[in-house]
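Why does residue order matter? Because the sequence determines the fold. Keep that principle in mind as you read this record.
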Amino acid sequence: MEKSQWFIDWTDAMGFGIPAMDAADQRLFAQVNAFNEAIADGRQARVIRAVFKSIAREASIHFKSEERFFAQIGYPLLKGHAALHRQMCAELDYVKEELGRAESRATWIACGLLVRQLFVDHTLRETAIVRGLPHADPH
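Structure:
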């Protein structure tokens, strides 16, 4: 499988242009890359699950921080954005369940690619909406 299908390569176009928020997104992307690297390398199930657990934990913290920031700047679509975060958390819960019972490499791969796509789609969508709004760096 080609590397681009597994890994997220950060570009400035993916960011808000707000250093603290962009750095948080980059940390999440690094964790997603580590998750997919563990799957691609055929690491033990416990290692893959542990890496995923850190993604889920970091995502939850990140989403709350992002929502606080959006509330501070008066982001007009905050409720919808928070709903997207809840949907992503539900998808991550689904992946957690799948990883808990996964026995085939195909299931591991499907989970890894799903997690990658969730974060890429979410980041690109929110960046396109937020980039034009007036804001200040939250940190």
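The mean pLDDT is 85.
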